[in-house]
Amino acid sequence: MNFMIPLRPAAWMALVASVLCGTAGVMLAQHYPIHPAWMLAVWTGVAFASFFGWQSLPMLVPALVPVIGLAPWTGWFAVEELDLLVLAVAAGGYAALAITEPTTRPVAWRFRALRWRSAVLVLMSVFALSAAISVMRGVDQAGGLHPGWWQGYQESMNSLRLGKPLLLVLLLLPLWLQASNLRPSAVLRLARGAWVLVLLTASLSAIWERWIYTGLLDFSTDYRTTGGFWEMHIGGAALDGCLAISAPMALLWLLRERQPARFVAAIAVMLVAFYACLTTFSRGVYLAVPIGLAVCAVLWAVQQRQGTPEHDAAPSAYLPGDAALPVGWTLILLSSVAVAAWVLFGAGGYRALLALAGSAALWVALPARRATWPVSQLRTVLALSPLPALVLALAGWALIDLVPKIAYALDGALILLGLVLCWRWRHGVVQPVQAFLVVSTWIASLAAIWLVAFHWGEGRDSLLIAAVLASLALGWLATQWSVRPAAALRQADWRVRGLLWTACLLVCGVVASLGGGGYIGQRMSTGQQDFEGRMTHWGIGLGLLKSTDEWLLGKGTGRFPASFAAGGPFEDRVGDYRWNPGTDDPSQATAAPGMLGMSEVPTVTLSSGLHQLGHGEMFRLSQRLQAVSGQVGATVVLRTQQRTRIRVEICEKHLLYPLRCIDREADVQPLGGAWQTVQLPMGTAPADFGGSRWMPRQLTAAVALNWRGSLVELRGVQIADSLHGPLLYNPDFAGGMARWFTSSDRIHMPFHMKSLPLHVLFEQGVLGLALWLGLLASALWRCSLGAARRHPLAPATAGGLIGFLIVGLFDSLIDAPRIAFLFYAMLALALGLRTPSRRVPRGEEVDDTPLETQFADADGESERMPLAPARRSRSGEA
C-alpha cells in the first residue's frame, strides 16, 4: 500500500468525509446504551478493517443488516447499530482513499461494470433533495428539532431516523465505484455474496424463532415470524420485504453455479429461504417471491439466448445443450409428486413426505442407459423390476408389528443403496443387470413409502396410497417401454437434476404447509376483508393531506403516526410514551390541576389507546430479562389523574406473540395526582420458565395500561424474584430509555400507511413520488432492456426490486430504516450496473469469453500493471 500526502481536491474531500464520519461514529459509540467502551473498541476495529479492506467491506455491508438490530436489548430507537457500521466503514474507506494509492491501476473503461450516468446522477440528486426537504418538513411539523436519544414515533427525531437510510447508501456509493474501477469482478462476487447472505441470515433467524417458539412443523398456530427485525414490534412487513428483495440473488447464484459443492450450498440456501417465506404466512410474500424469481429466471434465460451477436457467453457456458427438460414433462412430473404428497401426508404425515423426498432423490439420480440392448431384453428387465417391491411390501407388512421401526429402516436402507448404485454407475449403465438393480431399487423405495405410511397412519387409506404409488411406478415404466424410451431426465445434466429435486422438495413443503394446519387457509380466506380494510385505511391516510402544499411536497418524513394520532379516527388512536428528563427546580415539580406536571426526577409518561383493549391490544413498555426463578413480585411507582388499571407481566416472548406468562393487574385510584407505590405479587415462575439450555426462550417483562384512554407517569418499575433479586436494568429511568423497549402486538394500522407508493406520496408529495417512480423505472429498464441488461447481476436486481414492490403494494416497508437501506442499496446498484463494452479496437481479436471471465481477466490485467509513482502528490511507500 502506497501512502501519500493528500494534495488533490478529491483526496481532500475524502479526508474531510473520513473525519466527519469518524467524529460522528465515535460520538454515537460513546453514547451506546450497553457497554459504550466495548462498542467504541468494536467500532474502531471495523474502521481499521475498512481502511485496509475498503475494496471489499463497503459492498458487504448489506449482509449484516438482518441481524444487526439490537433495539429490544439497548432501547435505542432514533439511532441504531446500522448507523455505526456504515460510519465505521465509510470512515476507514475514505481515509484509505485520501492518504493511500492502490498498487494497481484502474481497469480500462470498457471493462468497468459500475457507473452512474449523468442523467441518473441528476435524478438521484433531485430525489435526495426532495428527501431532505421532506425531512425538514417533518421536523418542522413536529415543532422543531429537539435532539434526544429516547424519542418515539411522534417526535422530531423520527424524521431524522427515517431520512438516514438514503444518506447512508449515498455515503457508500463512491467507495463502491472506486473499488469496482480497480476490480470490476468485485461488483459481481461481493454484491452477489452480500445479498445471498442477506437472504440466509434473515431466513436462519426466522427458522430459529419458529424452532424455539412453535416448532418447525407447526403450521396451525397463529404465529408469524419476525426474525431479527425488531421494527415489526408495531407490525409491518420488514421480514417480508427482506426476503422478497434478496431471494432472486440466491436463485441467480443457483442458476450460474457450476461447482457441485457450491451448487448444493445454493440449493440449501433456497430451501431455507423457502421455509422462511412459507412461515411468514404473508399473502404478499406468496405472490412477490415467485414473481421476483420468475422475472430473474426469464431475464437470465434471455441473457443466454442473446449472447451471440456481441460474442457474449454462449448458453453452453452455463448449461449443457441437452440439459434442459421439456416444460410439459416437468409439469407432469411435479404434478405427480404433488398428488402423491397430498395423499401421503393425509395418512402418513411428515414421515411419509420425507420418505417420498428420498425416493424422489433416487428417481432424479437414475443413470442413463449407455448401451444398446434388444427391445425384448429391455422390456424383460422392466417387467421384472416391480417383483422385489412386491416381496418387500409383503414381508414388511408381515413384520411391521413384530419389529419396531422396520419401515423406517427399510426405507433408509433402500434410499442409501439406490444412491450408492446411482453414484457407482453415474456415467451410465451398460449391462441389463445394472439396469435391473437401479430400477428395482427405486420401485422398492416406493413400497417402503407405503410401509412408512401404513405404520404411521395405522393402516389408514392404505389401499389409496398403494394405488397412487403403483400409478407412479407403472407410469414411469410406461415411459420406458417403447422402442425409444423417454430419457429426458436420465440424460439431463446433474444441475438440472438437482433443480428438479429441489422443486420436488418445494412441492412437498407446500403440501405440508397446506395440510398441516388451517392458518394458511385462514389467511387466504380473509383476503377480501383485509383488502377492504386496507382501502379504508388508505382513504383515511390520504385524507390527512389537507393543503395543496402538503399534496405537492408531502407531510414530512416520519409524520404518519403523529398525523394519524391527531387527525385519524378517534377510536383508533393507540398508546404512546414520552421520556421526561426531570428538572432540578423543585418549584416546577408541582402538578397543576388536571395535569401531571414536571417531576424532579426522570419519568416516563405512558398512555393507552382509545381502541378496544385486550391482551394483544395493549401498548407495552418492556425489557428483556436474563432469567426468572422462584417467587416474583413487582413494584410500580406512579401518579395519575384518573382511574386506571396497571398490568405487569413476564412472558416467554420473542417480539409479538407471548407463550407462557406470569402476570398481575391492579386498579389504581388517582389520589389527587400524588405519587403512589403499587405492589403486585406475581406468583411463582414455572420451573422451566425460559425454556431449556439448548432451546432458550426470551423472557420479556412488560408494564401496560389495561384501561382505555388512560395516562400515568412512571417514576420507577422494579421486578424481583426470590433467587436473583432485582431483575431490571435502569428501573428508575435515570439512564433515559436505555434497555427499555415498546411494542403493540396486534394494533398496527395507525403506525403505517400500509402502501409503499402511498407512503412516499404522504411523506414527499406528488413531486417526490414522481421522482421515486422515475428512479424505479430507470432501474428496471436498465436491468431488463437497457444498458445493464447483459450484466450478470441484472436479472437478480430487477427481480428483487419487483418482488419488493409487490410486497410494498400492501405495506409501507421503507418506514423501517434497515429495510429502507436495503431497498435504496439495491436501487442504487441497479442504477449503476453497466455491461462492459464489447467493441473491439481495430487490429485486435474478438473476445468471446463470458462476462464473468472478462471481469476476472480485467482484474488480473490490472494487478499485473504496477502503478507509476504519483506525480501529483508527495508520497512514499510504507
Description:
- This protein is an alpha+beta fold and 878 residues long.
- The chain folds into three domains: 2-310 and 753-839 and 847-858, no CATH class; 329-491, no CATH class; 575-746, Galactose-binding domain-like (Jelly Rolls), CATH 2.60.120.
- Helix content is 53%, strand content 10%.
- The chain has 26 helices and 14 strands.
- The chain has helices at residues 9-30, 36-52, 57-60, 71-74, 81-99, 118-141, 157-182, 185-213, 238-256, 260-278, 283-305, 327-364, 375-384, 386-399, 406-424, 432-457, 462-481, 494-515, 519-525, 527-543, 548-553, 560-567, 756-784, 794-808, 817-832, 851-863, and strands at residues 2-4, 100-101, 576-580, 603-607, 619-625, 631-640, 644-653, 658-668, 676-684, 699-705, 711-721, 725-726, 741-744, 875-877.
- Strands 3, 4, 6, 9, 11 and 12 form a six-stranded antiparallel sheet that branches. A five-stranded antiparallel sheet has the order 8-7-10-5-13.
- A hairpin with a 3-residue loop joins strand 11 and strand 12.
- Helix 15 (406-424) packs antiparallel against helix 16 (432-457).
- The longest helix is centred in the middle third of the chain and has 38 residues, at 327-364.
- The N and C termini lie close together (7 Å).
- Mean pLDDT is 86; it is low at 308-323, 585-595, 839-849 and 863-878.
